[in-house]
């Protein structure tokens, strides 16, 4: 069992609470992560990602994709089958599931598609212009001095 103390991180940083909370949640989770349905996460470009889940047997109406509180929640619930069936072997799992993915700031879902039993969810990181690095022009001291207005004392 691994135990990490994130107290020094809280004492030495400001604004990184979310990262520390995510790390703490992941590292101290005693419950094993569910392996159903299997999924891939791929980086398709510098700021785009794709999550692919294997959801064989599920129709579009059986699946839901939602974003709430900086988390992507993918859930599937198979509608009740009206037909009585007798299986000799049942290897295709169609049990209900819920899979959660933590999203970073400024990551948004751009679309979802179901193709050949694979649910593809496309994401894009869009950093606002105000947060992008910008170059600051350096001026000489002479240019700054000539803009100073002479002020006289009031008293």
Describe, in plain words, how this protein is organized in 3D.
The chain is α+β, with helices and mostly antiparallel strands and 155 residues long. It has a domain of 83 residues: Sandwich (Immunoglobulin-like). The protein is 14% helix and 30% strand. The chain has three helices and seven strands; from the N terminus they run ααβββββββα. The strands form two sheets. Strands 1-2-7-6 form a four-stranded antiparallel beta sheet, with no helix packed on it. Strands 3-4-5 form a three-stranded antiparallel beta sheet, with no helix packed on it. Strand 3 and strand 4 form a beta hairpin. The model has no long low-confidence stretch (mean pLDDT 80).
Brief characterization of the structure:
InterPro entries: A-crystallin/Hsp20_dom, ACD_IbpA/B, HSP20-like_chaperone. 14% of the residues lie in helices and 30% in strands.
CATH architecture annotation of the domain at 34-80 and 93-128: Sandwich
CATH topology of the domain at 34-80 and 93-128: Immunoglobulin-like
H and E order: HHEEEEEEEH
Strand content: 25-35%
- Radius of gyration from the alpha-carbon trace, in angstroms: 26 Å
- Helical run tally: 3
Roughly how much helix do the residues carry, as a percent range?
10-25%
Give unreliable regions as ranges. Answer: none
Tell me about the largest β-sheet: 4 strands, antiparallel
The end-to-end span amounts to 72 Å
Organism: Ruegeria intermedia
Family: Belongs to the small heat shock protein (HSP20) family.
Pfam family, one: HSP20
Keywords: Stress response
């Amino acid at each position: 069992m691994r135990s990490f103390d994130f107290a020094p991180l809280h004492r030495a940083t400001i604004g990184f609470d979310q990262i520390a909370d995510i790390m703490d949640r992941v590292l101290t989770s005693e419950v094993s992560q569910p392996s159903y349905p299997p999924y891939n996460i791929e980086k398709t470009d510098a700021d785009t990602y794709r999550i692919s889940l294997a959801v064989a047997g599920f129709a579009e109406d059986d699946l839901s994709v939602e974003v709430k509180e900086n988390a992507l929640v993918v859930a599937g619930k198979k509608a009740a089958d009206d037909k009585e069936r007798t299986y000799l072997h049942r290897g295709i799992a169609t049990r209900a599931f819920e899979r959660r993915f933590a999203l970073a700031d400024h990551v948004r879902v751009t679309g979802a598609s179901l193709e050949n039993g694979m649910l593809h969810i496309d994401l894009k990181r869009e950093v606002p212009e105000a947060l992008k690095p910008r170059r600051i022009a350096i001026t000489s001291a002479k240019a700054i001095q000539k803009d100073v207005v002479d002020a006289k004392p009031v008293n």
